[in-house]
Automatic annotation (TrEMBL):
<dbReference type="Pfam" id="PF07679">
    <property type="entry name" value="I-set"/>
</dbReference>
<dbReference type="InterPro" id="IPR013098">
    <property type="entry name" value="Ig_I-set"/>
</dbReference>
<keyword id="KW-0472">Membrane</keyword>
<dbReference type="InterPro" id="IPR036116">
    <property type="entry name" value="FN3_sf"/>
</dbReference>
<dbReference type="GO" id="GO:0043025">
    <property type="term" value="C:neuronal cell body"/>
</dbReference>
<keyword id="KW-1133">Transmembrane helix</keyword>
<dbReference type="GO" id="GO:0008046">
    <property type="term" value="F:axon guidance receptor activity"/>
</dbReference>
<feature type="region of interest" description="Disordered">
    <location>
        <begin position="1"/>
        <end position="23"/>
    </location>
</feature>
<keyword id="KW-0812">Transmembrane</keyword>
<dbReference type="GO" id="GO:0005886">
    <property type="term" value="C:plasma membrane"/>
</dbReference>
<keyword id="KW-0393">Immunoglobulin domain</keyword>
<dbReference type="InterPro" id="IPR007110">
    <property type="entry name" value="Ig-like_dom"/>
</dbReference>
<dbReference type="InterPro" id="IPR036179">
    <property type="entry name" value="Ig-like_dom_sf"/>
</dbReference>
<protein>
    <submittedName>
        <fullName>Uncharacterized protein</fullName>
    </submittedName>
</protein>
<dbReference type="GO" id="GO:0007156">
    <property type="term" value="P:homophilic cell adhesion via plasma membrane adhesion molecules"/>
</dbReference>
<dbReference type="GO" id="GO:0030424">
    <property type="term" value="C:axon"/>
</dbReference>
<dbReference type="InterPro" id="IPR050958">
    <property type="entry name" value="Cell_Adh-Cytoskel_Orgn"/>
</dbReference>
Length: 242
């Protein structure tokens, strides 16, 4: 099998900063001390007796996409602390944060308009040459609400791809919780009343069954009382029946 490397469709040759190595079926291109001239589209081409295969990748100096680190639930009713990280070898020059509120109810969900915040990154500490961690607190939010946020970062080579949407939630106020508890209690009360109403017919059904059961033995029950009405005794009437 023969393997070759290309940059922007031009064949690559080894240099003091660029080496190609092979170990079994593993083929590696290594670029040391990356410079702007090394950016571009790279391809690896493999040929054997059965055909050809090619794979591509891009090497860029732009920042990587932002990853949010914040938990989604806020401890505040009207603010939220957003924290994210961006990987970039050159220092970041500008960061753009956009957020919006989702207007939701039981039947639909409609996003509001985006609010744009431009941030200037602080100098990166020497101990973290690649990762930039940033935070920003959004204030003036509405309680018991759902929001979305995205982040985009820029260095001297350009803007990165927009991050995935991060969804977060503000805390409910005590009146909302009390209102929900009242609704649950009211619903439970109505449910109990309905149950009582539905179980009422069962007593009528039992009455019918009981009456049907007693009908054959009613003469035996009534006969002793008939004897009493005619001046007899319960014992004597029983003898007459026997």
């Amino acid at each position: 099998m023969q393997v070759s490397w290309n940059q922007n469709s031009f064949p690559l040759q080894p240099t003091d900063r660029r080496t190609m190595s092979s170990r079994g079926n593993r083929h590696t291109l290594t670029i040391r001390h990356v410079q702007q001239e090394d950016f571009g589209n790279y391809s690896c081409v493999a040929d054997n007796s059965l055909g050809r295969s090619k794979k591509y990748m891009e090497v860029s100096g732009r920042p990587g996409p932002a990853d949010f680190l914040s938990p989604p639930w806020s401890r505040s009713t009207d603010s939220f602390n957003l924290t994210w990280k961006v990987e970039s070898y050159p220092p970041l020059q500008e960061v753009r944060l956009l957020y919006r509120k989702l207007m939701m109810n039981e039947t639909f969900q409609q996003p509001g308009r985006w609010h744009d915040v431009i941030l200037t990154p602080a100098p990166r500490p020497p101990s973290e040459p690649l990762t930039h961690v940033m935070a920003f607190t959004l204030r003036g939010l509405q309680h018991s609400s759902v929001y979305e946020a995205i982040v985009q970062a820029k260095n001297r080579y350009g803007w990165n791809e927009v991050s995935d949407i991060f969804q977060f939630y503000t805390q409910r106020i005590s009146s909302d919780i009390h209102s929900e508890e009242m609704q649950v209690a009211s619903s439970t009360s109505r449910s109990g009343a309905t149950s009582l109403h539905r179980t009422a017919p069962k007593s009528s059904a039992w009455s019918v069954v009981l009456l049907t059961t007693l009908l054959p033995i009613l003469p035996w029950l009534v006969a002793p009382f008939g004897a009493l009405l005619h001046g007899g005794t319960l014992f004597d009437r029983s003898k007459l029946i026997i």
